[in-house]
Each structure stands twice: as structure tokens, then as C-alpha cells.
Amino acid sequence: MVTELFPVTLTGAETSRRGKRLVGPVDLTLDGQGLCVVLGPNGSGKTTLLRLMHGTARLTGGTVQWACDTETARHHQAFVFQQPVVLRRTVEENLTYPLRLRGADRRTARTAARTWAERVGLGAHLTRRAMVLSGGEQQKLAIARALITDPALVFLDEPTASLDGRAMREIEAILLQAKADGTRLILSTHDMGQARRIADRVIFILGGKVHETGPAQGFFDAPQTPEARAFLNGDIVE
Amino acid sequence: MKKTLILTFLAVFAAGIAQAADQMRMAVTTSFHNSGLADVLLPEITKDLDLEVQLLVVGTGQAIKLGEAGDVDAILVHSRTAEDAFVDGGYGTHRREIMYNDFVFIGPADDPAAIAEAETAADALQKIWSASAAFVSRGDDSGTHKKELSLWVDAGLDADTFDAWYNAVGAGMGAALNTASGLNAYVLSDRASWLNFGNKGDLALLFAGDPVLFNQYAYLPVNPARHDHVKTDLTAKLEEWLTSERAQSLIDGYMIDGETLFVFNAK
Amino acid sequence: MRHAFWLVVTFDAELAEIALRSLRVTLTALVIACLIALPLAAMLAVRRFRWRRATIALLNALMGLPPVVVGLIVYIFLSRSGPFGALGLLFTPTAMIVAQVIIIVPLIASIAHQSLRELWAEYHDLLISMNVTQVQKMRTLIWDARRALLTAALAGFGRGIGEVGAIMIVGGNIDNATRVLTTAIALETGKGEFALALALGFVLIALALGVNLAIHWIGQTERDSRW
Q1: Which chain A residues contact residue C119 at CB under 8 A?
Q2: Which of B11, B150, B163, C199 has its CB surrounded by the most CB atoms within 10 Å?
Q3: Domain count within chain A
Q4: In this complex, do C140 and A87 lie within 8 Å of one another by their Cβ atoms?
């Protein structure tokens, strides 16, 4: 099952609420190679851009064009939120949930749940209530639940923003492993260190507009715009 | 354990109800039901006729309405005017007298209005009125209530003009007796309800015996011409039984505290 | 008081039958009411439709509906001279169930809606992202909020089993057919038989508590085995 979502092209894509433009217009083409980091300060519109592409923020202008039709593209995507959303169920039931929705039988779903729980280090917690896990564990669970349906693309909206260093490292390792397994990832962050560690490609966003985009190496070594330079220097940019 | 609980729930629903072959519904007055006579008659009816008579215990006014709407198969009430109107209106096929009992005046044992010395029922009411002694009225359009109102008229008084001493409770005989017991008030009751009443308190039977207080019960089957679902064959069977010698011996023989309550007079 | 206690201890057959009938009528009404109220509450939580606010307001208003009025309306509809008279349901346990369903549906739906709305706020982003259908959303919410919904159902049960006005009107309090605990209490009080009325009251309280405990206990065992 290899459904090709990329390249994705955004043409004049924008979203506004009550007359105020939150993001856009954005013109952008992504070929989806490796791990793409959406970088920018808080309030720059990273979350909205991710939602816009995912299809959960309303497009009020322009288009988002995937290599396949939008519905198929959506089916092969998953989304991980900054504040982990876990179902009020056990760890195992959280993991089987998306599979059961897609019609998997109970036994297949449970086997996959066990495998993924092991993979993200929650193997010992299968029967525990997800709500009592720590923040880091909850986020690992959310990521495993996103990956368990074998999606072509996973959006991650500042997945480690509220976590400590250890959880952050563990999650980054999980993400790099997923990338190695062939899953495309688009991750937003305002943490430059994280971007440097894991990004293959960077989209620098400020004030709802894309200021710069390109391979990570080039972006960090020689930013093209003064805003990007300022952000990389650690100055306050708005 | 969870299974046990579910089984218990299922058992609650599965518990069958033993029922007689035939069933019919009859509206009766509270005073009849409170007399306890029904508890004697119904099992005998079930035994003799294999018929379960389901009683709706209501006031005469509602009993008549139930018959008119066709929600019961027959009514057993005691209010001559209403009964005649019921038959005249074509709601009932006919009216069959079964038995009578009597109304009595109940009041505080010390009898502040001194009705125990009254000559007639009208005289007793006038004494209560002139003493403005607390009085409880059914006020529910029942046969007993209608009887009480007609007695006030006989006494030359208008119940609509009475002050706070006159308490219309809008409830059944038992509730009215409870209220009278609480207020230590006078009340008109049928003898049977009074004898069976369990909360007499300071109340006592003070006046009875005036022929105007006799209370005729009549049986009226609902007219199948108006309501074709009415179980006419069953109402006829019941009527035959209620007017039989067997019913006579049971009704005449029914006693509370050694007192006979009903007099069988079916013709 | 002592007499009343004695009556409960000896637990005669008639008392048992009346208690059982109470339980049967109210539990049936409860099951039906839940089948109506829970999906309704879930729908109100997840769907944005035109009359949604009006429906919620109506449910809240209906919660305060006087049971006697419900009884009266059901009576008029089921009477032989009413629109559903041909069914012959007046003065049957079915009529009592109908009245109780009408009385407890708004209560259960309102309470259920409160908790489902909270849960929906929590789940909204995830379920939207997973692109689940409306039915799947509702099922997920109902299942994950089941503990709170159980409380809603218990509130409905309490209101149903203790109800007397409507039941009296549509059931008619017929011995061996539609007499339940509450109407029997009203009847015995009317006869001045306070001891018996009190005994019936004890049984009513015991039933209400018993069902509450049983249901809480089910929730408890689930917690132990799973969490």
C-alpha cells in the first residue's frame, strides 16, 4: 500500500477568521523528502498552516493540491497535537481505536497495539489508563496511535513543546525511526535546537507568511532573509 | 458476580403473573373500595366465574367519565342523578341496584357543635354551621361529595358561602378522614370507610340513622353501541353474579367490628 | 413503626409482587429512555444543526415538567376516546412505562449532554483529524463517558421509581395489575394504614438504594479489572 501524496502544492492558500487573516496567502511546493520542520516564533501561524494542509482548518482562499485526491490524502494522514489528546481508555484501547475504526479485527488490532506500545516504550503500561500517564508518555502514546495506521504523512504540532528534555529526546528518536521506515513527517516547532537536530528541510514562517523554505543545511548556514537571520541569532522577531 | 446481577435483572422481567382466563375493568367509588367488601367479593368472583375484575378506584365523577370514555367495562357507583344521566345519555345500557349502606357524621369525640343530639341530618349540619365548627368536605365531585352538598341544600344553607371552617380537600374518603383527624373536624363519611379507617385519633361516630343518609349502590354496564370493545358478555356474567343469592349472602354477611355494613337489595 | 418493620421482615407475597412490578416498570422505562436520550445527547454534543440550541433549551425546560401533567396528557391520548384509544393501553403497565419514559428522557438527556459536551471538547480535535463519521463520534463519546452516563441513568431511575402522580393517573392503581410501590403508598395512606404505607416506603427506599449500589458496583469491578 503505497499511496503517493507528494508533491503537495499550496497556491495562494489562506485561512481567515472573522475577517482576520491567520495564515497566507501561501505558495509552496513540498516534495516531502525526509522530515520537514515548520519553524517560526510563537503566534506565527505554524499550527494553522499544519491544519490547513491537513484539512481541519477551513481554506478561505486558494488551494491545497495533493498528488492524489484530497479525501485519499486525508485518509493517509495523521495529526499529533501539542497537548496530547488521549482517549479515556487504556493504553491498549487508545492504540486499537484507529485500527478498529478502519475495520481491523480485534486480534489484529491488539497485536499491532502491543508491537507499537513496545516500540515507544509503553509495553509495560498496556492495561493502564492513558489519563494517568505522564505528559511525555501520553505524547508517545499519541504518536504511536498516529503511526499505527501506517500513514504516509504525519503532522506534528510542537509535539515536545511542553515536555522535559528526556521525553523530548525519546520522542525525537521515535520520529527519526519513523522517518527511516518511510513515513513523511511535517513538524512544527519554535525550538531552533530541535530543528537543527532533526530537520531535513525547513519552512520558516512569520506573521502567517512563508519567508523562506529550503534544505535545512542551507537554511541554518546561510539564511536568505533578514527575519530568518534575526530568528537564528536569537533575536525577538514578530 | 456480574452475571448473578444480570440474571437477577432478567428474573425481574421474566417473573410471570398468574391471571384468570377473563379480565374486565370496573370503576368503583373510593368508599366502596375502602369498605373492604371488594376484597371479599373479588376472590369469590374469580373462583366462580374464572373472571378477574380489575378495579379502578376513583370518585363517582371520574367513574362516570371513565364509563363515558369507554375506558372501563362497567361502573359501580352511588349517585342517582349522575347514574340516570349516564343511562339517558346512552353511555350505559341500564342501571341495576345492588345494595345500600349509609352515611354517617364523624367528628371530634367532645362534639363542640353537639350534633349527637340532632333530630335529622339537616339539623346536624345546621348545628355545625351555627357553631362554625371545622368541617372537612371531599370536594372531589364524588358520590359522597354530591350527597354532602345535597344535605346542605336540605338544611337551607349554601356551601359556596362558607368561611374558613369549611375545608374542601379535593381527595378520596381516606384522605378526607386523615385531614379531619388532623384538624379534629367534622366530616361526612360512608360507614364502611369509617369502620375500616386506621387513623381515627380523637374522632367518633356522632350521628347516623336518618333515612336520607342511605346510600344506594348501582351497577351500570357500559353501552357496547358506543364502545364496541366493551366486554358485554363479561359484564352480563358479573351482573348475574352480583344479583345472585351467593352475592347476597356474602354482602349481607360482611361485617366489621360486629357491624353489618351493606344491605343487599337487588331485584 | 415496629409494625411497619415487621411487615418488611416477613415480606409477604403481595408486597413482593408490588415491588417487583415497580422495578419492572421503571427498569423497562429506563432502558427505553436511555435508548432515546443518550444518542440524542450525543447528537446535541457533536452536531451543529439549526434547532440545536432550541432543543437544548426545550430539554432543560422539560426537565421541570410536572409529572402529573405528563400523566394527564398520556391519559388523554391513550383513553378509548383519545387518538390512541384503539390500542387499549390505558390502565396497563405499558401506559405507565410510556409516562415514565416521557418524564425521564429530558432528565437523562440533559445530564448526559452536560458530560458528553465536556468530553467532546476534549476529543474534538482528535476525532475531527481522524475523519470519523458522526455515528462513530457519538459511539466513542457514549462509550468513553459511560460512567457519567450511568449517573444520568441513575438519576432517571430515581425519578421514575419514586414517581406517583403520572403513574396513578395512567395506571389507575389496579390491584394485581398496575399497583406499584408509590401508588400503593398513596392508597394505604388514604386508608389511614400508616404502618403498611411506611413498610412500602421502606421497600421503595431499599429498592432505590439497591439498584444504585448494584450499578455502582458494576462500575467498580470494571475499574478493578482494567485499570
Answers
A1: 88
A2: C199
A3: 1
A4: yes
